[in-house]
């Protein structure tokens, strides 16, 4: 099986930009520790790209550490430090366990001091389980699926990648003439030798400085994924295996039986997928206030801007929950109108007073330009 199918490679670099920027937060982070650079046979950037495309992965399990610091204001989140809720993954440092035995057998578990949350795919059964709340949602993917419709949907309901492999999958969609691709330094990740592929936007309007992908020197699957904001030497987002095995996991890892007393919600059909490939448990893409949204795009590649309308109350003001967030953001105005700006080191989001939200890995000036023409 190819690690990166052509359909998966159609995703653009960071489809969950909106979800990340409007929730925000995070703490200072450092890079994952690595030992001395191993001596590896030289491989070109083109060879490494081919390696990624042609690698075969029959099984994988391991521990992944994710760290996020987007340089955003300390805005309230729905889950605090040590939480096992999947929404907590947009900031701070978190540990996940992953198991993979093919597109129809996969599991991701977020481990927290307050409990554990799991997303489990086993054939046509998809489970979401939260040990802290004692609740589980079961979805049968075979019901409501058109004939021939694939079901290898992303596991994480927040749309963010679950492994370095999935993160690299999305970033590789940006490999076009707007991207400079080079080979970085070799590294040792989770005890394994790895090459490093470096992607850098040529467009100065992007806030992304570099994307670094550490690739296993034998299996050619990503072991570490890092995103650096322009002008910084600390990653704003990174995830890496701290332990990994390429043996096929025991099938028992994918068989989920709700513990006694668990509140189970039954659903049917395939989770909706937005045009950029992300999925949520039973919902399509959403506004920051939780309502459904239809995102449009402006531009291509690294400077793409997502645009949508926000939910408003009868008097035209943003919904109460969203208004509380707006009050904490600085006011901005221009020829495009007025609104509030959320600016970090990697993403910017503009929330206009006339009910629009614009977000991207770009400087605020780029959002203002788009806002002026998309009214």
Automatic annotation (TrEMBL):
<feature type="transmembrane region" description="Helical">
    <location>
        <begin position="12"/>
        <end position="34"/>
    </location>
</feature>
<feature type="region of interest" description="Disordered">
    <location>
        <begin position="137"/>
        <end position="167"/>
    </location>
</feature>
<protein>
    <submittedName>
        <fullName>Outer membrane lipoprotein-sorting protein</fullName>
    </submittedName>
</protein>
<keyword id="KW-0449">Lipoprotein</keyword>
<feature type="region of interest" description="Disordered">
    <location>
        <begin position="250"/>
        <end position="297"/>
    </location>
</feature>
<keyword id="KW-0812">Transmembrane</keyword>
<keyword id="KW-0472">Membrane</keyword>
<dbReference type="InterPro" id="IPR052944">
    <property type="entry name" value="Sporulation_related"/>
</dbReference>
<dbReference type="InterPro" id="IPR029046">
    <property type="entry name" value="LolA/LolB/LppX"/>
</dbReference>
<keyword id="KW-1133">Transmembrane helix</keyword>
